[in-house]
Amino acid sequence: MLDAAGRNQTMLEVNGVSLRTIVEGEGPLAVLLHGFPRCWYLWRHQIDPLVAAGFRVAVPDQRGYGASSLPERIEDYNILELTADVIGLIDVLGEEQAYLVGHDWGCIVAWYTALQYPHRLKCVMGLSVPFLPIGPAAVNPPGRDDQFWYIRYFQNPGVAEREFEADIDRTMRFFNGVSEGAGQPKARDDSMFGSAPTPSRLQEPLTEEDHQYYVKSFTESGFRGPLSWYRNMGGIPTLTPWLKDAKIQVPAWFLAGSDDPVLQFAAGSVDLQDQFFADLRGKTLIDGASHWVQEQKPDEVSAAVVDFLSSIRAAG
Question: Which pLDDT value is given to residue 261?
Answer without folding.
Answer: 94
